[in-house]
User: Which sequence fits this backbone?
């Protein structure tokens, strides 16, 4: 029976003792269109008309990312008529909300300048509803407002709720949505909920949050967003590995020496010292973004590209991460904290001098880890991850470092040896792929120099790739959950990260200091040097 | 209004220096290339880079080891014709504290290649005044292109213990120095901290390449007995080049006393005495840009240079 096709063993997820089987509509919603005109290959990913409710509508994310992304989707005619309802505590009129969003679109949308004609349609679909996240009455009012808007605009009642709010508000909002009858689990019209990170602060809180949300929503209705997964280059990892015949045979411990994943920011805490001081880079970046990237780089070929199959493979990687406990934390994890320094031509203060940061804070602004994936493919191949603030440049990339030639004929004049064969996949900025090889320098000698073969998205395709939020919003409207994080992935990543936090909490050691504008503390370099390797200069 | 809008989107043509904010250099370069691609037609401009070449030029003449800054800057501007490179020219002006501490410019050096494409290299110039030089190591970390080696070129021989210099060379694969007419600076080269992968070369060694080759050719025709009778060699020419050539001979020919004397700037001459006098002259023909390009090559004679330097620094 087709509806049960998704419930074969590979699409079932196990979390704790619960077993969750996804029906076929969840795994292949866009492949079984009710409208035959959507199966022409061009318009099949066009979602049905819907209403998008953004909780936390007065926040930065809404103005800088979400509404500009929806505008860009509308400009490219990728979404049909849509109502967007902002929900927040502030007392704001529809007109004022529209005006504020117009500014956001003008400044941050990929499609510039604003098309007045398009805006008149798009802007008229923006509404604002004042309410409290923990007040059930606010949600009954929201329901009435939605019904009124949908009736006026002729929308079918599909609803996407976006929780762009602090984590403490996730559970109350979901509970109130449930109580107000706004999130029925029926297929049509649909009700889906996008939840922003952080999804918990440790394993216990993540499980607790999952439990309270799952009391109201089915897993298929939950879209846990990690905007890294919406980036074109991250998605291209699957294409690169599985659409080309030449790389996958090399993608294993026979040919790969090690893998590095770098998430470097030039920014400090930017006025969010109070928040960051309770979070740190391990929670803020590694637990979600970098582990997701690692999972995509290391996963086995999925049998199908639909959501559950890819996520099944990702969770296997996360579960195969060798735990880091108290006994080996010093050998495998380095934490650092930036001191005052010079960055891009300006003096910047140290972390402890930032507003909102505790004077004796031990929160890490840098973390480097040596990970092992205990499976057949990656046995013996270390994965080095580093994530940090106040680095010399902003860059996120994965680099696959291949083993050297077994017999080195050109040792004497070989400057390329120092650089090796490296495949670097740049996630941001300047998205693209570089392959580093050694080549003979023209002339009578046998000098070997490193050269790169490079592909850049912007120059090859003549346009910047879409913003991550565009892709993710579109996917959630279409019902494609491939690029969203499933409950068991959250569980697996926190299971790996939480023991590290516990070990740090029990330690009296302070993070290693590094000057802002440097590539981390000396101990982070030593982490690789003792293995005879070095961090790549991104 | 139309003119104003057009102006705000226009970029100067490649080759013209565009002033930019130091923090926005990479972004402005990307924008410049995008603009260049649009101007020159699809696929007619190739952005090439095989080296990061960082030139540190201190524009103050009264400091030992800091001479030759202006000629070095001129040479760097021509280098992309020989070596595809991203060039970072760091001009430090420690005495000028009354102007902005940092100013920067970008431009592209393009040459029309045989296949009809423009092959272009990037040039970034950063002027650091007063204590603005403390920002240079961080800017260099941010602006080097990954996967290609880094060479740091100095006008003179710097003081390696200077924190700014130490920051500039921390990721370098090759250092190019120029003791020039100040032979005492050769000793400073040897104080360079040892680090795997890092090689240093003095341009005087490049200047002596033809002389070394000519001497080796001549010695093919000298018997071992005759060679043993040679007791002393005196090399004349530019100070550092002459000492390095003498040092090389002292290291390669045991029992030979090496000496160096000031001589012409455009030639080197080696005079062997003790047995039958042998005089070998060789011009220094390489252009400044050629000698710099050669200094970037990984050379088979690196070990010979180090041995020569060790002796050259002790030659009176």
Assistant:
């Amino acid at each position: 029976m087709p509806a049960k096709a998704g419930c074969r063993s590979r699409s079932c997820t196990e979390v704790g003792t619960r077993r969750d089987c996804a029906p076929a509509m969840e795994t292949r919603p866009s492949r079984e269109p009710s409208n035959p005109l959507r199966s022409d290959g061009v318009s099949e990913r066009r979602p049905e008309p819907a209403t998008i409710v953004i909780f936390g509508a007065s926040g930065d994310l809404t103005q800088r990312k979400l509404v500009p992304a929806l505008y860009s989707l509308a400009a490219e005619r990728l979404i049909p008529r849509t109502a967007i309802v902002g929900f927040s505590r502030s007392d704001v009129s529809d007109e004022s909300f529209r005006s504020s969003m117009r500014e956001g679109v003008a400044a941050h949308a990929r499609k510039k300048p604003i098309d007045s004609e398009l805006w008149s349609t798009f802007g008229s679909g923006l509404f604002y509803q004042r309410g409290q996240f923990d007040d059930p009455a606010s949600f009954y009012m929201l329901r009435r407002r939605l019904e009124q808007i949908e009736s006026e605009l002729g929308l079918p009642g599909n609803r996407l709720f976006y929780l762009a709010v602090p984590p403490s508000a996730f559970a109350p909002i979901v509970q109130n949505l449930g109580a107000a009858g706004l999130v029925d689990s029926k297929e049509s019209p649909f009700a889906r909920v996008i939840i922003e990170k952080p999804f918990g602060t440790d394993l216990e809180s993540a499980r607790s949050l999952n439990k309270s949300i799952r009391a109201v929503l089915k897993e298929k209705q939950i879209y846990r967003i990690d905007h890294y997964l919406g980036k074109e280059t991250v998605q291209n990892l699957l294409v690169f590995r599985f659409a080309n015949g030449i790389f996958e045979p090399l993608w294993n411990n026979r040919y790969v020496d090690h893998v590095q994943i770098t998430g470097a920011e030039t920014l400090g805490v930017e006025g969010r010292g109070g928040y960051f001081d309770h979070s740190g880079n391990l929670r803020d970046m590694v637990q979600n973004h970098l582990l997701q990237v690692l999972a995509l780089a290391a996963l086995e070929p999925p049998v199908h590209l639909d959501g559950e199959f890819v996520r099944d493979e990702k969770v296997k990687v996360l579960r195969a991460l060798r735990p880091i406990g108290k006994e080996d934390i010093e050998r495998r994890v380095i934490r650092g904290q930036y001191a005052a320094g010079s960055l891009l031509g300006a003096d910047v203060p140290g972390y402890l001098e930032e507003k909102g940061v505790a004077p004796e804070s031990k929160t890490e602004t840098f973390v480097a880890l040596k990970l092992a994936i205990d499976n057949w493919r990656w046995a013996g191949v270390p994965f080095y991850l580093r994530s940090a603030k106040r680095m010399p440049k902003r860059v996120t990339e994965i680099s696959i470092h291949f083993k050297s030639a077994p017999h080195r004929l050109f040792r004497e004049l070989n400057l390329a040896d120092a650089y090796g064969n490296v495949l670097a996949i740049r996630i941001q900025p300047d998205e693209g792929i570089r392959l580093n090889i050694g080549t003979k320098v023209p002339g009578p000698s046998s000098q070997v120099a490193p050269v790169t073969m490079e592909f850049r998205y912007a120059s090859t395709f003549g346009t910047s790739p879409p913003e991550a939020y565009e892709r993710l919003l579109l996917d959630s409207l279409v019902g494609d959950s491939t690029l969203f994080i499933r409950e068991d992935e959250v569980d697996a990543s926190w299971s790996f990260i939480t023991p590290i936090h516990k070990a740090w909490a029990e330690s009296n050691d302070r993070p290693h200091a590094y000057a802002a504008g440097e590539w981390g503390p000396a101990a982070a370099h030593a982490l690789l040097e003792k293995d005879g390797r070095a961090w790549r200069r991104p | 209004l139309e003119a104003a809008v057009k102006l705000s989107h226009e970029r100067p043509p490649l080759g013209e220096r565009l002033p930019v904010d130091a923090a926005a250099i990479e972004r402005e370069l990307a924008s410049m290339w995008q603009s260049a691609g649009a101007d020159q037609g699809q696929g007619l401009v190739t952005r090439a880079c095989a080296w990061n070449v960082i030139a540190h030029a201190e524009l103050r003449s009264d400091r030992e080891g800091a001479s030759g800054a202006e000629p070095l800057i001129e040479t760097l501007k021509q280098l992309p014709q020989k070596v595809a490179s991203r060039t970072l020219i760091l001009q430090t002006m420690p005495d000028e504290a009354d102007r902005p501490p940092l100013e920067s410019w970008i431009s592209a050096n393009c040459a029309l290649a045989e296949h009809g494409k423009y092959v272009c290299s990037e040039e970034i110039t950063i002027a650091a005044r007063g204590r603005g030089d403390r920002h240079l190591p961080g800017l260099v970390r941010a602006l080097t292109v990954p996967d290609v080696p880094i060479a740091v070129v100095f006008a003179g021989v710097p003081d390696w213990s200077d924190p700014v210099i130490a920051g500039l060379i921390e990721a370098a694969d090759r250092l190019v120095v120029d003791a020039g007419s100040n032979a005492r600076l050769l000793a400073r080269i040897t104080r360079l901290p040892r680090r795997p992968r890092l090689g240093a070369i003095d341009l005087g060694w490049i200047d002596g390449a033809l002389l070394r080759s000519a001497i080796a050719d001549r010695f093919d025709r000298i018997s071992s007995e005759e060679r043993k009778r040679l007791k002393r060699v005196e090399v004349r020419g530019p100070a550092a080049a002459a000492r390095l050539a003498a040092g090389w001979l002292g290291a390669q020919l045991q029992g030979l006393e090496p000496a160096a004397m000031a001589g012409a700037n455009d030639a080197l001459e080696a005079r062997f005495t003790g047995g039958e006098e042998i005089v070998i002259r060789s011009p220094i023909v390489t252009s400044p840009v050629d000698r710099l390009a050669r200094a970037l090559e990984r050379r088979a004679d690196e070990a010979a240079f180090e041995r020569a330097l060790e002796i050259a620094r002790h030659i009176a």
User: Anything to note?
Assistant: Chain A touches chain B at residues 266, 341-346, 392-393, 412-415, 418-419, 422, 424, 430, 434, 436, 441, 445, 447, 449-452, 458-459, 517-519, 536-538 (CB under 8 Å). The mean pLDDT of chain A is 88.
